[in-house]
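> Could you send the AsnC family transcriptional regulator prediction when you get a chance?

Sure thing. Input:
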Amino acid sequence: MNDLDAIDRAILATVQQDGRISNARLAERVALSETPCARRLKRLEADGYIGGYRAALSRRALGLGVMAFVHVRFAVHDRALSERFEREIQAIPRIVSCHNISGSADYLLTIVARDLDDYGTFTRDVLRALPGVSSIESMLSLREVKPDAGVPLL
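Output:
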């Protein structure tokens, strides 16, 4: 991060906010001409500061009205079991994020569902059947106060 100057940071902030911005508009916003701006953007991509581009979809418009944060606990802490659990969750689209965490739980999952009935069925039929899972604790989002705005450029 120390290798980034103010222009690099401005480029990152701008493309994080609008990944479809044209190079001409980006160059204008960061006060560069187009060619140096394009070169910097390519370097930031090549150096791994930009991991990819994607659209931010509206889960509500897609009919996914429930967002749950789930603590998953294991009774037995076995590396092979954890690796199997992690492999299996990769294939479940409605688990939108998974973090191996410290504290009273082993993993924190973010899960989306159409409604509470759909979430209940998913919990019963999928979550509880994952390898290693001994207990789960669900916390349902009542209202999103601050959506994921990307990574801060400190």
